[in-house]
Specification:
CATH architecture of one domain: 2-Layer Sandwich
Organism: Aulographum hederae CBS 113979
Distance between the termini: 64 Å
Protein name: CoA-dependent acyltransferase
Largest sheet: 6 strands, mixed
Structural class: alpha+beta
CATH class of one domain: Alpha Beta
Number of helices: 14
Low-confidence stretches: 401-413, 489-494
Shape: globular
CATH topology of one domain: Chloramphenicol Acetyltransferase
InterPro entries: CAT-like_dom_sf
Order of helices and strands: EEHEHHEHEEEHHHHEHHEEEEHHHEEEEH
Mean pLDDT: 87
Length: about 575
């Protein structure tokens, strides 16, 4: 059996250009590579557990167009196909069967004819909910993504609301990548039809697809220097360090847990397949902090020398602490409370100098720990104290790679040097794949042997938190002017008489199919408001308690609210 480190910083994940050619037809190119370790982890989720961890992205745009309905439909479909060619993992399949290997499916369903009365945001939310609780939306051997185009909603000014729901396997995308793809999709929609056609033809060229193929993150890791003996010594010492580290304390139990199973709701049976359901049902909710509360979080974070990302983690932790305190009949003495612990994925791109967001590139944290503070302490004092702690822990995952950092990693004194970080991420990935894989498919990979690592924050966290930071660099309302004159179909730009579409961003809502007992909070901001979206195991968490948590989150830093104890 090969050494477990054989896939680390390896060329085994390089893309292969497979050309089929005969004398009667032009050559056909297909590109293949092995899945990386992190990608395999999410492959197991999706393939073995009916779409578990698949990402949903509900994109809302305001559009203005003089196109006929059929032309508009065709324009959206071409924009989607162009997007897939420009970002080739949207064309990917896993273990394709021969008859599907060379076929490019359109992977788009336009729902305009199915739901004539479907036109509101609440209808979109219901469809979103059900898309996470059916059989997997796509089959991985045919495609790893599908786009639903929801019915249009007409506004009084003649503009329309266009909503699209993209469901994608987590093995090819993460939060940053989804925002990148949404940004490019909006840009393509705004192209004139003739320009879009030209862009599509260019994107179809095998040479352009080849240049856009993203690597597996394992191929980019900092290599372990030295001969084979020194490399084996590195892995030995790393595994021992993982074994002897202090284990995490027992966290606050998530106060939103429940006992009753959810009710069955089988809607949209002509869109989704209900013959099979995933092992867990997924609930989803979203909330925004008001501009005043966002400003307060920003000011308090800045005053404490912390980032807004640390502020997001702190808000979530404080809300959980408040509800935890409320759930206790007899609070333990001060200082004996368990801490709040958040597990969280993070982007390791900076550790190997990779800037592109066009695939799934994730690492998994050791957990963020915030000590419990009772609600009797004024909220600003609690926030200011905890945000410093959060910022200090999160800063370890934001360091940038350099040649010096790689060499420093050999000393083992710096736990966040690029080399040690990448190597530890690789081991965590191997362990996650083995832990998730059903017994009959396990490969027996166990790098630690009898010396168990103590990294598993996900085994005992209060909740999970995923932050993508400011999204205005990807999508922002007001980027496109909706000034098309619908009276004569012309415009002051140089499109001439060509029918065009103008599309401006309004909102995007993302979530995942939840794992067993998962409560994952997604954090982002647009510069004016902080946004939180939650994907959770509906069988494990009480919807009424989740709504109460939402109310606490919205009011915790709201000036003058019931939680605003400033004295």
């Amino acid at each position: 059996m090969e050494h477990f480190s054989a896939g680390y910083a390896s060329r085994r994940y390089d893309w292969k250009d497979i050309v089929q050619q005969d004398e009667h037809n032009p050559p056909k190119h297909s590109f293949k590579r092995l899945c990386g370790v992190v990608e395999t982890s999410f492959y197991v989720d999706g393939d073995r557990f009916e779409g578990r961890a698949d990402l949903n992205s509900l994109l809302t745009l305001e559009i203005r167009t003089n196109m006929a309905e059929n032309d508009l439909r065709a324009h959206i479909q071409r924009a989607w196909m162009t997007l897939r060619c420009r970002h080739p993992l949207l064309l990917a399949k896993t273990n394709p069967i021969p008859e599907n290997d060379e076929k490019i499916d359109s992977n788009i369903t336009v729902l305009w004819d199915k739901f004539q009365k479907f036109s509101s945001a609440s209808d979109a939310d219901i469809l979103y909910f059900h898309s996470q609780n059916t059989a997997r939306v796509f089959q991985g051997d045919k495609t790893l993504t599908h786009l639903f185009v929801l019915p249009l909603e007409t506004l009084p000014n003649g503009n329309r609301i266009l909503r699209t729901l993209q469901v994608t396997g987590h093995m090819i995308t993460d939060g940053l990548t989804m925002f990148n793809w949404n940004s490019d999709f909006i840009r393509l929609l705004n192209l004139a039809p003739s320009k879009l056609k030209e862009t599509y033809q260019l994107a179809l060229e095998p040479s352009n697809i080849k240049k856009s193929l993203p690597p597996a993150q394992e191929s980019l890791y900092a290599p372990v220097p030295g001969n084979l003996a020194r490399q084996r010594l590195f892995w030995l010492l790393l595994r021992i360090l993982r074994y002897v580290r202090k284990p995490l304390p027992t966290p606050i139990t998530n106060p939103l847990l429940k006992d009753e199973p959810p009710k069955d709701l089988y809607l949209y049976s002509d869109v989704f397949d209900w013959s099979v359901t995933p092992p867990t049902t997924t609930g989803h909710t979203r909330l925004f902090l008001s501009p005043a509360a966002t400003k307060r979080v920003t000011q308090l974070s800045k005053a404490a020398g912390a980032t807004l990302g640390a502020g997001s983690f702190t808000v979530v932790g404080l809300a959980m602490m408040s509800l935890y305190a409320k759930s206790l009949s007899t609070p333990p003495p001060f200082g004996l409370h368990p801490p709040f612990i958040a597990s969280f994925p993070w982007s390791p791109r900076a550790f190997f100098n990779h800037k592109e967001c066009d695939s799934c590139m994730l690492a998994f944290s050791d957990g963020l720990i915030l000590p419990y503070l009772p609600p009797s302490i004024p909220i600003e004092k609690r926030f200011s104290f905890l945000v410093k702690i959060a910022n200090r822990q999160l800063a370890a995952y934001q360091r940038k790679s350099s040649e010096k950092g790689v060499q420093d990693g050999l000393s083992f004194l710096d736990s966040r040097a690029a080399l040690r970080t990448c190597a530890n991420t690789y081991l965590i990935g191997l362990e996650r794949v083995e832990a998730k894989t059903p017994e009959e498919f396990k490969g027996g990979v166990n790098p630690q042997g009898e010396y168990d690592a103590k990294w598993m924050a996900t085994m005992g966290a209060t909740c999970g938190i995923s932050s993508v930071g400011l999204t205005s660099g990807f999508v922002k309302a007001g980027t496109t002017k909706l000034d098309l004159d619908l009276s004569d179909g012309t415009k002051t730009r140089d499109e001439g008489d060509e029918k065009i579409l103008q599309a401006d961003f309004r909102s995007v809502d993302t979530g995942v199919r939840a794992r067993d007992k998962e409560f994952l909070v997604q954090c982002s901001g647009d510069g004016e408001r902080m946004r939180f979206g939650v994907s959770y195991d509906l069988a494990a968490y009480d919807e009424k308690k989740v709504e109460e948590w939402k109310r606490v989150m919205e009011g915790l830093l709201e000036p003058g609210s019931e939680w605003d104890t400033t004295s």
